[in-house]
Design a protein that fits this description.
By secondary structure, the chain is an alpha/beta fold. Helices cover 52% and strands 15% of the residues. It has helices at residues 2-13, 18-36, 42-56, 64-92, 97-129, 136-143, 147-163, 165-190, 203-220, 224-259, 297-307, 331-337, 355-360, 413-421, 444-450, 470-478, 487-490, and strands at 131-133, 196-198, 266-270, 278-282, 288-292, 314-315, 317-320, 339-340, 343-345, 367-368, 375-376, 381-386, 395-400, 403-407, 430-432, 454-457, 483-486, 493-497, 502-506. The longest helix is centred in the middle third of the chain and has 36 residues, at 224-259. It is globular, with a radius of gyration of 26 Å. The model has no long low-confidence stretch (mean pLDDT 83).
């Protein structure tokens, strides 16, 4: 019970991401097996953990962090024993048996475990990020041995610090040395031009590689007699299996596509991308418009992958609302994976624009939107850019029937006032707070004019500024806002409207 509680506490401490929860389930299952005298079985435990998490949140299957965590664990289960035996045979050619056993013990975790995990994860990494790390294996050899000291020392410092800050700091200095060593090794190897290479891999190739690795791995964990019998059975029934398997794959793909067809309603996703603003809109007939991007390419792609169909790699339009390198940091990687039919610049471009390099990556000719320009999608949705006066940022208002959304993620207080002074009527059902709920914006006057029923704060977990700011929360209460959603607490927030009603679903 104590060990299970410690595992659960660690999961809470590091944020409870899907990959961490997978490890928690498997760890607790192993402890229960040991306590009850049962044999812990890696594949069964992994399958159970994946099943539980996917029941709680089916979207977790499209989370790249979760995919890599499961693949790495599967690699350890399927290939570690064979790789250890291969290493032992290789070392026996050069060293006596006692030395070989000692070397295998030393190299097992930093080398064998790393190779087993990389066998299963490399294709996913290359497909998702377009890069292959050449130095990762050597890096692991250098840094894996210090990980236990970092984790155990960190735990001890945390516990001691809760009793005495001075004692906790003293222990934390002991963790500083291995932690600094780890960071310096990673930074030093990352500087070499050969440490990683750009590699492109199609989704079909990834499926084939993963299926092949799974077949090889499953066959290796079988008893030799069972393996021979299974192969004999497969050879005898190959035609039937082929037809049945192909039919099942086609059926699953058809259902996946069918379930993601436009349903005649407006869908608005406030994507959980950490710092920054990223909103995906899908109109009743299926047009997809992305507003903003956020700062993290990985989180943006993961968030889009969870809400868009797996085969969909096209956005109908991308709207940029601020001429800022940080605000648009994720777009460069996005355009490597997704194509867009239109790039719309709602914010004015300055003399030294951050958009310049970004525009070179897009085949579509950018269109500079002007205040008063209204985009009508043909299915009842209206998109209006709002950039008052000399404002560096633009707001975007989306309306569908009686539902309206106002996105002011990059606005400052003076830009809010400037918008009101133009005479524009900003009242909206849903309001995205500026700056994640910064008190330098979201003024009481502007909130009174917008009069939202729902407010959304796009913020990262544990942000240093404590957003949304308590003063802004108080202003929202005074403006009689019914509900405030936050991406750090609620995950990706989906709002669905038929033009009359509004339904809200959260990722957590």
């Amino acid at each position: 019970v104590l060990a299970s509680s410690a595992i659960a506490a660690y999961a809470v401490l590091v944020g409870g991401d899907p990959g961490v929860l997978r490890a928690v389930f498997m760890g607790i299952l192993a402890l229960v097996a040991s306590r009850t005298g049962r044999r812990a079985h890696g594949l069964t435990s992994l399958a159970f953990a994946v099943w539980v998490l996917s029941v709680l949140d089916p979207g977790v299957l499209w989370d790249i962090g979760f995919q890599l965590s499961v693949a790495a664990t599967l690699g350890l289960v399927l290939f570690t024993d064979d790789l250890t035996a291969l290493l032992r045979r290789a070392l026996r050619r050069f060293f006596p048996t006692p030395t070989t056993a000692q070397l295998v013990g030393w190299l097992s975790e930093p080398l064998v475990v790393s190779v087993a995990a990389q066998i299963a994860t490399t294709s996913l990494i290359v497909y998702t990020f377009g890069r292959l790390s050449v130095a990762s294996l050597f890096t692991n050899l250098l840094i894996v041995p210090v990980q236990p000291y970092i984790m155990i020392g960190g735990w001890l410092a945390l516990i001691a610090g809760s009793v005495s800050i001075t004692f906790g700091e003293a222990l934390a200095w002991g963790v500083w040395l291995p932690l600094t060593y780890m960071l310096r090794v990673i930074e030093a190897l990352a500087r070499f031009s050969w440490s990683s290479a750009e590699v492109q891999l199609s989704a079909g190739a990834v499926w084939l590689i993963c299926a092949g690795l799974l077949l090889v791995g499953m066959s290796r964990v079988m008893h030799p007699d069972d393996r021979a019998a299974a192969w004999a059975k497969v050879r005898g029934s190959l035609p039937a299996y082929s037809v049945g398997g192909a039919g099942l794959i086609v059926a699953l793909l058809v259902w996946q596509v069918a379930l993601r067809q436009p349903d005649g309603r407006l869908h608005v996703w406030f994507l959980d991308v950490g710092d920054g603003n990223a909103v995906l809109i899908e109109t009743p007939r299926g047009a997809q418009v992305l507003i903003g991007s956020g700062e993290s390419p990985i989180r943006l792609q993961a968030a889009l992958g969870r809400v868009m169909p797996f085969q969909d790699r096209t956005l109908d339009a991308v709207i940029l609302t601020r001429d800022d390198a940080g605000e648009n940091a994720a777009l460069a990687a996005l355009f490597d994976r997704y194509s867009t039919r239109a790039l719309l610049l709602a914010a004015p471009i300055g003399e030294h624009s951050h958009f310049t390099e970004l525009l070179d990556q897009v085949s579509a000719e950018p269109i500079q939107l002007q205040p008063g320009h209204v985009i009508a999608t043909g299915d009842g949705v209206r998109i209006e850019p709002l950039a008052p006066g000399a404002a560096r940022a633009a707001a975007v208002r989306v309306t569908y029937g009686g539902a309206s959304f106002l996105f002011c993620a990059g606005f400052a207080a003076h830009e809010e006032i400037a918008l009101l002074e133009t005479g524009y009527y900003p009242r909206s059902t849903v309001f995205q707070l500026s700056g994640g709920g910064s008190d330098r914006a979201n003024t009481a006057r502007f909130l009174a004019a917008v009069r939202p029923q729902i407010a959304v704060a796009a913020v990262s977990a544990g942000n240093l500024f404590g957003l949304p700011h308590p003063a802004v929360i108080e202003r929202l209460e005074q403006a009689e806002v019914q509900r405030v959603y936050r991406t750090d607490r609620d995950g990706t927030i989906e709002m669905i409207s038929d033009g009359v009603t509004l339904k809200v679903q959260t990722g957590r």
